Amino acid sequence: MTIREIDLLIDGKKVPSKSQQYLDVLNPATQEVVAKVPVATLDEVDAAIESAHKAFASWSKTSLTKRMRIMLKFQQLLQDHTDEIAALITEEHGKTLPDAEGEVGRALEAVENACSITRLQLGEMANNAASNVDVYTLNQPLGVGAGITAFNFPVMLPAFMFPAAIACGNTFVLKPSEQDPSATMLMVELAIKAGVPAGVLNVVHGGPDVVNRICEHPLIKAVSFIGSTPVGTHIYNHASLHGKRAQCMMGAKNHMVVMPDANKERAINDVIGSAFGAAGQRCMANPVTILVGNSREWLDEIVAKTKTMVVDAGTNRRADLGPVVSPQAKQRIIKLLDSGVEQGANLLVDGRDITVPGYPNGNFVGPTLFTDVTTDMDIYQQEIFGPALCILQVDTLEEAIDIINANPNGNGTSIFTSSGYVARKFENDIDVGQVGINVPIPVPVAYFSFTGSRGSKLGDLGPNGKQVTQFWTQTKTVTARWFEPDHSEGDEIHTTISLK
């Protein structure tokens, strides 16, 4: 088996790193080393930033139409290589092939939104705002932007960042997760093939030192991050301290509310799919379900269907979930699941000791389901980021809303109901940034912005939609007055602030 050597991408070229430190990239199902990724030297990080800075002078002056056409080519190449990209995601992340293909589809939506840059980057104008005075805005690029992404979506998360950033006229330095970089690198290579000029898009790899260098470097103007709350909080504070614009989409504890008037079969299937899909390694997963009123009678069926979930390597298309990303992740998940038992939760489905034939070394955790969960337990308070579902039971919708609003996170929440009144009450009373109504994972299509809130987000602008253009541009307002040749006005001094 050939082990891939992951390169840096600087000034439009793949560059072998001079680093003395390389990290193993493992197949989570087998623990085989499939690639080696460098921890870039700080000189290499600086070189990538300098390349982006140099390219900004010409790229920022490139027409909107040309930038859009490059994005259109990139979109097509991404679509054409879906199978190849998905295979790399499955090999290094572990998620099932159908799920990996779905990730590429969501990435395509974000790239397609960037293809709308000729509309999204338009300014505003008021003709004759005062006498012979026009006022208009220019939405201009910032300079060099940076993106730092987590392992769980190695293609979708970068797609939330660099396509829109460079479509707006910025240049970019991307630092993907070192746990599964190959799909990201293929994606970036396709962007270069689509016509992104040298220096406009660069890639470096590494850990905290590389991240800090990005946050501190004076040429970086904005930083986007998607990942865990501790890392996101550090990046937001550190980048902001150094004068950067920053957005950080972070951890979550999403809740799904099931009302007794919901479509029973649909609700049960979506409770299970959203909790255990991708082995629970989604910031928009559903780790908490609240059964309201008589819907608690469905618990036995939820448990029975959970036990039918197929756990296997992601290459098995019949698998419902594959392994978690690393032995360390498995160890952390198991420790949290153990705490649930120790703190008194009722363990109805136990996936801690699952074995998968043919994969004795895989990082597998089976679907795990708790009832009698209270909000002071670790399995409720912490983001498990594994295939675990906590079920709470209440009598009323109001109780469910109070529980959700008391949780510090605000990434997403869903309700299953057949009542328009109940759905409307929920969407208005809930204090969470993204709401699903009979939708289990309420991530909007990419021409709407990602709007997580509260403890799940730092920064006032999210990825995608209109907000992504606002984040990657600065608004310049021009107030202009033009006179006829040889005009006779203006022969008096005016000391007032008003426009006349």
UniProtKB/TrEMBL annotation:
Gene Ontology MF, one: methylmalonate-semialdehyde dehydrogenase (acylating, NAD) activity
Pfam families: Aldedh
Enzyme class: oxidoreductase
Domain Aldehyde dehydrogenase: 16-478
Gene3D superfamilies, sorted: Aldehyde Dehydrogenase, Chain A, domain 1, Aldehyde Dehydrogenase, Chain A, domain 2
InterPro entries documented for this protein: Ald_DH/histidinol_DH, Ald_DH_C, Ald_DH_N, Aldehyde_DH_dom, MeMal-semiAld_DH
Keywords: NAD, Oxidoreductase
Keyword Transmembrane helix: no
Entry keyword Oxidoreductase: yes
Signal peptide interval: none
Record GO biological process: L-valine catabolic process; thymine catabolic process
EC number: 1.2.1.27
Family stated for the protein in its record: Belongs to the aldehyde dehydrogenase family.
Protein name as annotated: methylmalonate-semialdehyde dehydrogenase (CoA acylating)
Species name: Thalassotalea mangrovi
